[in-house]
Amino acid sequence: MSETYSDAFLKDILKRTRRVAVVGVSMNPVRPSYYVARYLSLKGFTVIPVNPGHAGEKLFGQTVLAGLSDIEGGVDMIDIFRRSEHVPPIVEEALSLFPDLQTVWMQIGVVNADAAAMARARGVDVVMNRCPKIEYQRLFGELRMGGFATGVISSKL
Asked: What is the CATH number of the domain that holds 87?
């Protein structure tokens, strides 16, 4: 299943989001879940790292939590780094714990139509098979590879 999202939709999500629970975060700097969480924290998002295998450890100034139920104060978005088949119970728990949840974001390669339908039925926006780091860089002019979004229009290389 492939969904398309308008740039305006993605930009709105990234602009309104302040607190992000990164579910399945890694402590390994070469893992995408690590550097995406790090990037978001450097961009001013409050990143709540969630991974039961690393609970109690520190990551980007935050304590890694064992689960969503350990988060105090709610979150605007959950960013899921888990295999697609593990997504429905995560979304179900997030919907029950966070009445003000705005977005369920599933990382590149993570797609679950049932979880998406569950979230959308509650009025929560859903993004699947995308990365907030990549979308942030693309939409806010930070991608520099190959000259894209450098803020300079030129025919010179």
From this structure: 3.40.50.720
Angle (CA) 85 36 78, round 5°: 50
Contact status, residue 112 vs residue 106, Cβ threshold 8 Å: yes
Reported as a single tens digit per residue, the pLDDT across 60-108 is 999 999 999 999 999 999 999 999 999 999 999 999 999 999 999 999 9
Q: Does a structural domain hold residue 44?
A: yes
Q: Which of 152, 140, 108, 131 lies closest to 15, judged by CA? A: 140
User: 69 lies in which domain range?
Assistant: 7-147
DSSP state of 94: H
The reported pTM is: 0.89
Asked whether residue 153 is domain-assigned, the answer is no
Token pair, residue 90, equals: 């995560």
Query: b vs e for 58-96, b when ≥16 Cβ sit within 10 Å of the residue's Cβ?
Result: ebbebebbeebeebeeebbbbbbbbebeebbebbeebbe
Q: Partners of 116 in the beta sheet?
A: none
**C-alpha to C-alpha distances, 125 to 42, 60, 146, nearest whole angstrom:** 24, 27, 32
